[in-house]
Design goal:
By secondary structure, the chain is mainly α. It folds into two domains: about 5-100, Hypothetical protein af1432; about 105-140, no CATH class. About 40% of the residues lie in helices and about 10% in strands. The protein is built from six helices and two strands; from the N terminus they run H-H-H-H-H-H-E-E. It has helices at about 5-10, 20-25, 50-65, 75-85, 90-100, 100-110, and strands at about 125-130, 135-140. A hairpin with a 5-residue loop joins strand 1 and strand 2. The longest helix has 16 residues, at about 50-65. The termini are far apart.
C-alpha cells in the first residue's frame, strides 16, 4: 500500500505532458506534520497541488460507499477533515475546502460540472483568502 505513490511516479516518468502531475501522485500521502509517506515531507515542502488533492481524496473516500461500509454524511466528513487540519492536512486547504457549499459538491459528484478548459459554457469563479490559496467554485450557466 505505501509503495503506490512511488509506483505511480514510475508509471508517469517519461510521459512529458504529465510531469506536473507527478508531484501530486508521489506526494498525496505526505502529511502536514511530516508523518506521511513516501518521503516524510512536511508543511510547505509538500507540493500545494498534492496538499489539495490529499484533502479531496480523503473527503471522497469518507463520503463514498464501500462494500464494507456506507459513506459518511457530508457534515461528518467535513468535521473529520477539520479535526485533522494542521496534522494530516494543510490548515489553509481545509479552511478553503470548508467554504464550498454542500450543494456544489453534490452537483460535482453528479457530474453536473465540467472543466472550463473543456467546455467554454462553464465558468470558474475564484475566491481567494489572505495567502492566495484559493477554493474554486464552479457555476452552471442559467
Amino acid at each position: 500500500m505505501r509503495e503506490h505513490p512511488l509506483l505511480g511516479l514510475r508509471i508517469l516518468s517519461g510521459i512529458n505532458f504529465l510531469d506536473s502531475a507527478s508531484l501530486v501522485v508521489v506526494q498525496h500521502h505526505e502529511r502536514w506534520d511530516g508523518r506521511g509517506y513516501p518521503y516524510g515531507l512536511s508543511g510547505t515542502e509538500i507540493d500545494r497541488n498534492a496538499r489539495i488533492f490529499a484533502v479531496a481524496d480523503a473527503f471522497d473516500a469518507m463520503i463514498s460507499d464501500r462494500v464494507y461500509r456506507a459513506g459518511r454524511a457530508f457534515a461528518e466528513a467535513t468535521e473529520e477533515l477539520r479535526k485533522h487540519a494542521g496534522q494530516q492536512f494543510d490548515p489553509e486547504v481545509i479552511e478553503c475546502f470548508a467554504r464550498i457549499p454542500q450543494r456544489e459538491w453534490e452537483l460535482a459528484r453528479e457530474g453536473k460540472y465540467e472543466c472550463a478548459v473543456d467546455r467554454q459554457e462553464y465558468r470558474f469563479a475564484q475566491r481567494t483568502n489572505r495567502t492566495g490559496l484559493c477554493a474554486l467554485h464552479l457555476y452552471v450557466p442559467e
